[in-house]
Amino acid sequence: MIPELGHLALIFACVVAIVLGTLPLLGAHRQRQDWIALARPCALVFALLVLASFAALSWAFLRDDFSVLYVAQNSNSLLPSMYRFGAVWGGHEGSLLLWVAMLALWMLAVSVFSGQLPEAFMARVLGVLGLVAAGFLIFVLFASNPFERLLPVPDNGRDLNPMLQDPGLVFHPPMLYMGYVGFSVAFAFAVAALLGGRFDASWARWTRPWTIAAWVSLTLGIAMGSRWAYYVLGWGGWWFWDPVENASFMPWLAGTALMHSLAVAEKRGTFRAWTVLLAITAFSLSLLGTFLVRSGVLSSVHAFATDPRRGLFILALLIFVVGGSLTLFAFRAGQIKKQGKVDFALVSRESFLLTNNVLLVVATATVLLGTLYPLAIDALSLGKLSVGPPYFNTVFVPVMMPLLLLMGIGPMVSWRQADLAALVPRLRWAALLSLVGGMSAPLLFGDWSPLTALGLVLAMWIIAGAGFQIWDRSRAGRPALGWWGMQIAHIGVAVFVVGVTMVKGFETEKDVRMAPGDTVSIADHSFRLVGVRERTGPNFTAVVGDVDVLRDGKVIDVLHPEKRVYFSSSNPMTDAAIRTGWMRDLYVSLGEPLDGSLDGAWSVRIYDKPFVSWIWIGCCLMGLGGLFAMSDRRYRSRRGAKDGSPVLEGALT
Amino acid sequence: MGWIAVGVLSLGVATAFTLKAFNSNLVFFITPTQVAAGEAPQARVFRVGGLVKSGSVDRSEMTVRFVITDTAKEVPVQYQGILPDLFREGKGVVAQGKLDGQGRFIASEVLAKHDENYMPPEASHALAQARNQAGTPPQPERTP
Predict the structure, then answer these.
(1) Read out DSSP for A25-82?
(2) Fewer Cβ within 10 Å of end Cβ, chain A: N or C?
(3) Statement to judge: residues A210 and A288 lie in one domain
(4) Among candidates A553, A554, A572, A550, which has minimal Cα distance to A562?
C-alpha cells in the first residue's frame, strides 16, 4: 500500500510540475497576477509530494518490502539499516528519484529564502525549475519507476552491490547530487533573466549565493567520492580521470568560473552575457554528467544495468534544455550587451577574473574532449578506444599553473584599473618566501624534482599572498564574510595543491608477497604480517590480516586489512586498513592468497602516501570558504529588489 | 593589436600541444582475434578484452599469468601485481599494456572493477565480434 501511495505522490508531483512549468511562465509573460501567484504554492506542493514519495521508498527499504522490484534488487534482510537507507539511491531508479528530490529541496529553498525577489521574476525561476522537474519526473514514471511491484514476492533481496556497502554511500551521492542539481537554480535565474530581459547588478547578487551553495555541495560531494575511492577500491588512488569522475568535475570547473564571473557582474556590471552563458553551461554539464553516468554508455562502477531507452530519454532532455536555453540566449544576448559596458584596463581585477574564466573554460574543454571523444568514436562505429590519464595530466596541469599563480595576486588587484608597479613591492616578501620555501622543501622529503618544487612554490605563493592580505586588511577594519570566504577557499586550493604535489612526488607503492612473520620496509616504516584469521560480520565473512607497523623497531600501530566475501555475492571485497596522519597515510590492503604456497603467503599492497589527507582537507577548506561567502550579509538584505543596483553605483563613484 | 597576436599565437601553441598529448594517449581497443591476426600496435599501449579462460590463471608468485579469450582466439597475459577483486575465471576482463617479442601481452593494468553481473562493454564487444565471424554470416542489415 505504501509503495502505491509513493507512486501516486510521484504522479501528482508530475502534474503539479507541469502546471508550475507552464502557467507562471505564461503569467509572467502576459502579466497575469493570478497565474504568477501560482508559482510558490505549486513549488511547495511539488516539494512535499516528491519528499513523500521519497519517504515511501525509504520505508519500503527499511521494512524489507521485497515485493517492490527495486528493493528486491538492491537490498537484503541482512543488510545493516544504515546501508538500507543508502540503498534507496544505490541503483538506477532510486538515484533518479534522489535527483528529483534534490531538485524539490532546492525549489523549496528558493521559494522560502528569496522573499525579496520581484514576483514575476520568482514565477519565472520556479517555472523553469518546474519544467526541468517535469522532464525528469516523466522519465522516472515511464522509464524507471522505483515502485514497480514484483510477483511472486521473493523471500529475500539480491542485496546491495557489496562495493556500495560503505558509509560513503550514505553521504557521497546526496551531497554530489545536491551540487549537480543546485546549478539548476543558477540556470533558472539565468533563463528567467533572459525571458524578462533584466540583467542588473541585483540579478547577479541574487544568483551568487545560490551558485556558491551548489558549488560547495559539489566540491564536498566530489571530495567524498574521491576519499571513498581511495579506501574502498583498495588501489589507494584519489583520482583516476575516470569518465564518471570527469562528469562531475566538468560542472565543477564551469561552476567555479561562474562563481568568479558573477563577482564581476555584481560589482562592475560587465561580463553579463558571458555569466548567463556560463550559468547555462554549468547546468548543461550537470545534465551531461547525469546522462553519462545514468545511461550506461560508460563502463564504470556507476553504470547500472543498461536500458537504451533511458539513455535516449536523458539525451533528449539534455538537447531540449541546452538547445532551448541557447536559442533563447541567442535571441536575447544583444539586449544584455546593451545594458553593460566594457570599462576596464588591461591590469585590473576584471582582467584577472577574465583570465581565470578563460583558463577554467579551457580546462573544462580539455576534460570534455577526453571524456566525449571515445563515446563519439564508438557511436560512429569507428572502433573502441579510451583516453588515458596521462592525457589529462599533461594537459590539465599546465592550464592550472597560471591559474594558481594569478590566484596569489588577483584579490589584491583593484577593480577597473590597477597599478602593477605599486603591487610589486608589496609582493616582494611573498614571492621571496614562496620561492625559497618551495624550492627547498622537497629536499626535506627526498629527491628534488622540478614539478614538485613548482607545485610547492605555487602553493606557498597563494598562502603567503593570502596571509599578506589578511594582515593588511584586518588592520584596516573588519572585512566582510564574503572576503574571508574567498581567502579561506583560496588557502584551501593551496592546501589541496600541497597534497597533490607531495603524493605525486614522494609516494611509494609496493605490491609484495608476504607470509606470516615476513617484514617489509618502506619510508622509515616496517610492516610485519603477524597472521591471517577469519571474522564474521552481519552479512559477510572476512579474512583479516594483522599487520604490525614498526618504526625504529617499535610497534606504533596494528592495522587490520580485510578481504570480505558477502553472502549474497561470490566476489570478494577489499577493505584497506589506513593509518591516517597529517604528514602521511600508511596504507595496507590484502591481495589474494598465493596458489600452492606452503607458508600461507598472500600478495599484499603496502603504500606510503605523504600528505594525502591534505587533498581532502583542502577541499573541505574550499567548502568552508564557500559557506562563509554565501552567508555574507549583503545577500540577505531585503532592499535588493527595489533600489536598482546600489553596489554598482557605489563602485562607479 | 600586439596583444591579440600574442593571444592567438599562444592559443595556437596550446591547441597544438593539447592535440599532441591527446593523440599520444589514445588507447585503442583490440580484440584477441585482431591480436592473432597481427593487427595490434607494436610499440604502443593498447587494451585487449574478453573472458578470462577457465583454468588459465597461475598466481603462484607475484607475477600472475592468465589467458584472455574471445572464444575464437586467445592472448596469453602476464601481469605484475595484485588483481582487482572482480577478476574471476570465466568472467569478463579488460587488460591494458603492450605485446612483448613472443606474443605475450604484458599488462600494466587489469580492469575488472564492476558489478559481478556486469560485463565491461569492451569485453562483450570482443565476444560479439568473434561470434559474428565464426557463426552464420550476419544478415544483410539494409537493402541498398
Answers:
(1) HHHHHHT-HHHHTTHHHHHHHHHHHHHHHHHHHHHHHHTT-TTBHHHHHH--TTS-HH
(2) C
(3) yes
(4) A572
pLDDT digits (tens, 9 = 90+) for A11-70: 999 999 999 999 999 999 998 999 999 999 999 999 999 999 999 999 999 999 999 999
pLDDT at residue number A136? 92
Per-residue pLDDT tens over the stretch A395-417:
888 899 999 999 988 888 888 88
CB pair distance less than 8 Å for A571 and B22: no
Please indicate, yes or no, if residue A133 is contained in any of the structural domains.
yes
Can you tell me the distance from the alpha carbon of A483 to that of A488, in angstroms, rounded to the nearest whole number? 9
| Residues A145 and A252 grouped into a single domain | no
Instruction: Report residue B135's pLDDT band, with 50, 70 and 90 as the boundaries.
Output: low
Q: Which residue ranges in chain A fall short of pLDDT 50?
A: 300-305, 639-653
Q: Residue A365: what pLDDT?
A: 93
The cell numbers describing A235, all together, are: 588501489
Q: How many domains in chain A? A: 4
Cβ atoms of A613 and A499 within 8 Å: the answer is yes
Cβ distance of A384 and B125 shorter than 8 Å: yes
Task: Please report residues of A whose CB lies closer than 8 A to that of B121.
Answer: 299, 384
Same domain, A215 and A322: yes
Question: Is the same domain home to A175 and A284?
Answer: yes
Residue listed under C-alpha cell 600541444: B17
CA dihedral A420, A425, A426, A430 (to 10 degrees): 110
Domain membership of residue A652 (yes or no) is: no
CA dist list (Å): A534 to A10, A514, A537, A541, A560: 46, 17, 10, 7, 12
Same domain, A77 and A139: yes
The yes/no answer to whether this complex scores an ipTM above 0.90 is: no
Tell me if A647 is assigned to some domain.
Answer: no
Q: Which residues does B contribute to its contact with A (CB < 8 Å)?
A: 3, 14, 17-18, 21-22, 24-29, 45, 47, 58-62, 80-83, 85-86, 88, 113-118, 120-122, 125
Contact A386 B29 (CB under 8 A): yes
Domain encompassing residue A65? 1-160
Indicate whether A248 and A179 sit together in one domain. Answer: yes
Do B58 and A595 lie within an 8 Å CB cutoff? Answer: yes
A479 domain residue, yes or no? yes
Pick the residue from chain A with its C-alpha nearest to B47. A385
